Amino acid sequence: MSYAIETKKRKFDRILEALTDSASAASAPPSPSHSSINASTTSLSLYAASDSSKRRRITPPSKTATTHTSTPIALSGHYLPSSRAAFLQRLETFRHVTQWHIPSTDPVNAAAWAKRGWTCVDTDTVACGVCKERLYVDLNLDKELLKLSERHGGEGADEEAAAADEEDSFTISSEIYGSIVKKYQDMIVTAHAESCLWRKRGCDSSIQRIEGLLNTTLALSALKTRYDSLSSHSDEIPRIEPLPPTPLVDPQELEQFRLSGQEKPHIDALRLAVCGWQRKCEDVIECHHCFRSLGLWLYRGESPAIEKLDAIDNHLEYCPWRSAEAQDTELQTGHARTTTSGEEILPKKERVAGWVLVYQAITKDNKQKKASNGSRSTATSETVLGATSSESTTPEQREKKMKDLLRRIKEIKKPFNVKALLKRKDKPKA
Ligand SMILES: [Zn+2]
Ligand SMILES: [Zn+2]
After folding, report:
1. 32 plus 51 within the same structural domain
2. What are the record's GO terms for cellular component (predicted)?
3. Given pLDDT bands bounded at 50, 70 and 90, which one contains residue 162?
4. What pLDDT sits at residue 185?
5. Strands (E), 248-328
6. What percent of the chain has pLDDT over 70?
7. Strands (DSSP E) along 100-220, which ranges?
8. I need a labelling partner for 35 at 20 to 30 A (CA). Which of 135, 200, 270, 313 fits?
């Protein structure tokens, strides 16, 4: 590493210290420069990658002006690390895109703070309802501050070194960003008062889990509620990206699915409902687990701003509808298969996202309906029924299901085995 870079690194370290010192000052108000940054990001292009700008553009204009007031939250003043309701109340305080600018992709995102007792009470400011500590969170690398520091503390930095610096500035900036994030990761715990219980233990790892998704009846009744809210104005529903097929997700199952007492459902509304979306108000849908809202008008019309709505990707990074880690529920997944030597390989267990669990409920419901109709359905519609909740089956049942699945897979493979077909044609009596 060159001398110039080392010098620059030391300077960056000092700036970092200054930044985090001001961050740890209990109730530092947002600086004027910070609000001007916010004002400028508001006008970012429609396709800006930043999470907060993405959220900003989809918030209906009429709503943004009224979302500043932070209403008192009933449960946030108590230490309730196992209460899902209390956690969701805290998480919801971070929903206002004009108040909270930390991207959901960051390790210090809203879910991380809410899991440790914090609520959002002001612009990028969190507070604990138990110990009443406050903290201003600022991940911005203030470029002006860096330039200023270069001008005033230029020891050992000649022009040549400055050119070399430029090359490394990106690397160094991301290093600084990493250290800032690391410091805030620690402060999620240490910014609580010494005596605060949130300092000792945060929420359980499963706190974000959407409940009831392994119970087919519950999962489908919640699905119907969401679907009905969406389909009441089905003309508003834009085109939705088809859900990605996986060993657990056979596109045909959604086509065949009928909600209780209903005709063939509106496929786009159904895709949205499977992925956890429901209507918030006219032309706006929302998620009750990451509190993201989407304006449907952006996806409609002759030349829509966005061609198709992706019902999965539009959840925030940490949403259990999208994140298998947040949902923290295991299923048996993957295709069972037989090796050439005849050895049976069983599927393994895997954590899946919330929407996949709803898809499983649909698949099971289709199967039950077929069974009760007594009609023999085509093999294709049954190929992906192997995955079941590992909680609700005995080893014997699992083994039986496994064998059924293997048999079906062998059956379904037959028509596509062209060589075998040709051979059979050659030797009609074989
Ligand atoms: Zn506290
Ligand atoms: Zn969500």
Report:
1. yes
2. nucleus
3. low
4. 97
5. 277-281, 284-287, 293-295
6. 63
7. 118-122, 125-128, 134-136
8. 313
- Same domain? For 144 and 257 the reply is no
Identify which ligand lies nearest to the alpha carbon of 317: 2
Ligand nearest to the CA of 132: 1
- Provide the 10 A C-beta neighbour count for residue 110: 26
What angle is formed at CA 376 by the lines to CA 373 and CA 379, rounded to 5 degrees?
130
Residues lining ion ligand 2 (Cβ < 5 A) are 287, 289-290, 315, 319, 321
Q: Do 343 and 401 share a domain, yes or no?
A: yes
Task: Looking at the CA of 88, name the nearest ligand.
Answer: 2
| CA 387 distance to own-chain centroid | 23
* Domain total of the chain: 2
Q: Which tokens in the block code for residue 279?
A: 């209507």
Closest ligand by atom to 353 CA? 2
CA–centroid distance, residue 291 to ligand 1 (Å): 24
Q: What is the mean pLDDT of residues 189-209?
A: 96
Query: Same structural domain for residues 38 and 182?
Result: yes
CA of 108 to the centre of ligand 1 (A): 17
Residues 228 and 129 in one domain: no
Domain containing residue 9: 3-200
Instruction: Please tell me the predicted confidence (pLDDT) of residue 389.
Output: 39
Shared domain check, 422 and 301? yes
Distance 291 CA to ligand 2 centre (A): 6
176 and 235 in a single domain? The answer is: no
Amino acid in the structure at residue 396: E
Report the range out of 163-172, 211-220, 386-395, 399-408 with the highest average pLDDT.
Answer: 211-220
Q: Which of 15-19, 247-251, 252-256, 289-293 has the lowest mean pLDDT?
A: 15-19
Q: Are residues 235 and 304 in the same domain?
A: yes
Q: 259: which residues sit within 8 A by CB, 6+ positions away?
A: 220, 223, 224, 227, 265
Which ligand is in closest contact with the Cα of 275?
2
pLDDT at residue 338 in the model: 78
Contact 389, 214 (CB under 8 A): yes
3-class SS of residue 8: helix
Which of 142, 173, 200 is the last residue before a domain boundary? 200
Point out the domain boundary residue: 174, 200, 226: 200
Q: How many angstroms is it from 262 CA to the middle of ligand 1?
A: 50
Query: For residues 87 and 207, is the Cβ–Cβ distance under 8 A?
Result: yes
Question: What is the pLDDT at residue 147?
Answer: 54
The closest ligand to the CA of 355 turns out to be 2
